[in-house]
Specification:
This protein has 23 helices and 19 strands. It is α+β, with helices and mostly antiparallel strands. It has an eight-stranded antiparallel sheet with strand order 12-11-10-6-5-17-18-19. It has a five-stranded antiparallel sheet with strand order 8-9-13-14-16, covered by helices on one side.
């Protein structure tokens, strides 16, 4: 099915494809481009030729006849120029490209080089329109250099019209990938391959490392009952999320599974379990076209990154072409695409996500030569994301969809991987009912508050007061959701949407990883619930540090509100992190349960504020919005920010959490990193176990 669905389109483009490939082949015999550009075009043309051969082979490849050693050799060769330290010597690296080709030319040709690298996955998926169009762009740029050096502005215009002309192909195709179960490239591999033979991993076309191979072999050694149980934790969490939100799952027909390669045995079991719920699974890879990529990362299945610095350097490549006309065109095309696929959108239930952790923590290097948004483009990017969010919510309403997230370690985490994996399974399946009872005692105390005071310990400079909303009917309403293992696995937090007015102070963490990026000495100042100042110690200059935060935490907004305040209760996870010394490698999904956390951006209830939700005790959640989301009836661009970044203070950096009650009393929740509220002492038991 996956090849048939593109058959007509491939036939229509075939002549253009063959002509473009013939032209690229001829370049190898030409010397019409002068130094220093000749080497670039020679290397890139050779890569495109290789992609033509790959597309031909992938269309008829019988992987059962190719040895593992040969598949590994082929895979290494496909990614050899950008993997690991080799990236810094390739034209994909903006610094290297500028050094060899000159300012302006280096950035443009580095962008082109990375766009062309998408040909690997298009070849495996037999997407000949994508292969053709990017090859034609390369030819057009090459022609501009024949006989002389073109001016930079004309090259930028060529890139601009390439993006503008074809976004009405790439954006609809991307939306279809996300909604149409008929596009089943990855799902077919997962369901049909012999998962005991790791050669299946090379059928995806992605970069394959020891992580993926060892993970696949590890899962192959587990009994099917255990695989089914892990899949059930995942799928049942998804189903329970719909139940708890009061959303009718029976009206939905599709679910999107996002995961990392190597976990196919669990995913195959999940596909079957979702099928039993009436849901067909959709599995698509991360976006390859620049126009579909997002600076904060694109959803889809993935593997261990061949170079995290590569993705960091190219996260704002859209700076090469982004302007107001293109934003309007992208939004218009997106709207038309959702209109075309509105029936598929109406029955889509939302994502089920399996995250991984354990890779070597990434501390990015600053690359001055990399493309970066101007201030105007930052505003345009925010406007584009806001507009896209509004369009998506129209066709897949937030109050009609849900999600679930779970995380597992990968072998790179170290020699104790089997033990850490077993510990993670334990953490993901902690007693739902026990935590529900313990967390209810926290909520009963927090519901009495007009604010909560949080102070750091030792070197942690946090000194923050979080304002709370006032309950109209305390007997029937609550301020904090009792979060157990449904949409957000593992169990272990109570959370609220704080009142912005009156939320003031400093939030500080000495070291934290957010969206896979490391921050040193991160400090944020909040006034009336919004960020007014920020700094860290990652780079040598304050300007670099502020730009780092603005790009990767504020996502180019001037400010963001505090969308969530939560108290994490999963002390078991915290002590496991200390036992195996993996705290820095844990995903936010687990780390946020290991102390109080604070989310910048949208609330946890964005787009579904008006849908009633209830805690297990029957009380209705009353704190589902803040002064920003309240503006949704007037101006959606001021109500939603399309981001939500959790920042956790670990227990060992915590002096206290105290509730300032409306009657003047103070109730202590945590003192010196330990739970002191009567009835919650059991949460301290993991602290007292030997490390």
């Amino acid at each position: 099915m996956r090849t048939e669905i593109w058959k007509q389109e491939n036939e229509e483009i075939r002549e253009r494809y063959e002509l473009s490939m013939e032209r690229v082949q001829a370049m190898g015999r030409e010397r019409s481009v002068a130094a220093p550009f000749y080497d670039y075009f020679h290397i890139t043309a050779a890569f495109i030729e290789r992609m033509g051969e790959l597309a031909k082979a992938a269309g008829k490849e019988n992987f059962s006849e190719i040895s593992l050693e040969e598949l590994q050799k082929q895979n290494r060769e496909l990614y050899a120029d950008v993997a690991g330290e080799e990236y810094k010597e390739s034209y994909a690296c903006p610094e290297t490209a500028v050094r060899r080709l000159g300012e302006g030319y280096g950035q443009i040709l580095s962008f082109l080089y990375t766009e062309i690298r998408g040909m690997i996955v298009w070849a495996y998926e037999q997407r000949f329109t994508d292969l053709t169009v990017v090859t034609e762009l390369f030819i057009e740029i090459y022609n501009a250099f024949e006989g002389g050096t073109p001016d930079i502005q004309s090259l930028k215009q060529t890139i601009y019209w390439y993006i503008s002309d074809y976004c009405d192909v790439w954006i609809p195709n991307r939306i279809r990938e996300q909604l149409d179960p008929g596009l089943s490239f990855a799902k077919d591999i997962i369901c049909e391959a012999d998962l005991n033979d790791v050669r299946y991993l090379y059928r995806f076309g992605e970069y394959i490392t020891e992580n993926e191979i060892k993970m696949s072999r590890f899962l192959a050694g587990l009994p099917q009952e255990q695989i089914d149980a892990m899949a059930s934790t995942f799928t049942e969490g998804y189903r329970i999320g719909f139940d708890n939100a009061g959303i009718d799952l029976s009206r939905k027909r599709t679910v999107n599974i996002r995961y990392s390669l190597g976990f196919e045995r669990i995913v195959r079991a999940a596909i079957g379990q979702f099928k039993g719920m009436g849901l067909d699974s959709i599995i698509y890879r991360q976006a390859a076209h620049s126009v579909n990529r997002r600076p904060q990362g694109s959803p889809g299945y993935q593997t261990t990154a061949f170079s995290k610095q590569y993705f960091y350097d190219h996260r704002e490549d859209a700076a090469l072409y982004l302007d107001s006309k293109l934003v309007e065109r992208k939004l218009s095309v997106l709207r038309s695409a959702y209109e075309e696929y509105q029936e598929l959108a109406a029955v889509h239930a939302g994502p089920a996500v399996m995250e991984v952790f354990g890779e070597k923590p990434f501390l990015p290097e600053n690359c001055p030569e990399a493309l970066r948004f101007s201030e105007k483009q930052q505003e345009l990017n925010v406007r584009c994301n806001s507009g896209a969010g509004q369009i998506i919510n129209k066709y897949i309403p937030g109050d009609e969809r849900s999600f679930t997230i779970i995380a597992y370690p990968v072998p790179e985490i170290g020699p104790q991987f089997p033990e850490i994996f077993a510990e993670t399974v334990k953490i993901n399946t902690l007693d739902y009912h026990l935590y529900q009872e313990l967390q209810q005692k926290l909520i009963d105390a927090l519901d009495q508050g007009e604010s909560v005071y949080i102070r750091g310990a030792g070197g942690n400079r946090t000194d923050l007061t979080v304002a709370l909303w006032e309950l109209t009917d305390p007997k029937k309403e609550t301020l904090f959701e009792n979060c157990v293992a449904d949409v957000n696995i593992p169990v272990g937090e109570v959370f609220t949407s704080p009142r912005l007015t009156g939320t003031n102070g400093i939030l500080h963490v000495s070291e934290v990883y957010l969206n896979e990026l490391k921050y040193l000495d991160l400090e944020l100042k909040l006034e009336n619930g919004k960020v007014t100042d920020y700094t860290c110690k990652n780079f040598d200059t304050e300007e670099e540090n502020r730009n780092y935060i603005r790009t990767n935490i504020l996502f180019n907004h001037e400010t963001l509100p505090l969308g969530e305040f939560a108290v994490g209760t999963n002390t078991t996870a915290y002590m496991a992190a200390r036992k195996y010394d993996i705290g820095a490698k844990l995903p936010i999904l687990i780390a946020e349960k290991m102390g109080p956390h604070f989310a910048l951006g949208d609330t946890c209830f964005s787009w579904s504020e008006d849908t009633p939700t209830y805690n297990p005790d029957g009380k209705r959640m009353a704190a589902k919005e803040n002064e920003c989301s309240m503006l949704r009836g007037e101006d959606l661009s001021k109500a939603y920010f399309n981001c939500h970044t959790d920042i956790t203070i670990p227990y060992d950096e915590l002096e206290c959490i105290r509730v300032n009650c409306r009657d003047g009393r103070t109730v202590s929740i945590i003192e010196k990193g330990r739970f002191v509220l009567p009835g919650t002492e059991k949460l301290n038991e993991p602290f007292d176990e030997s490390v």
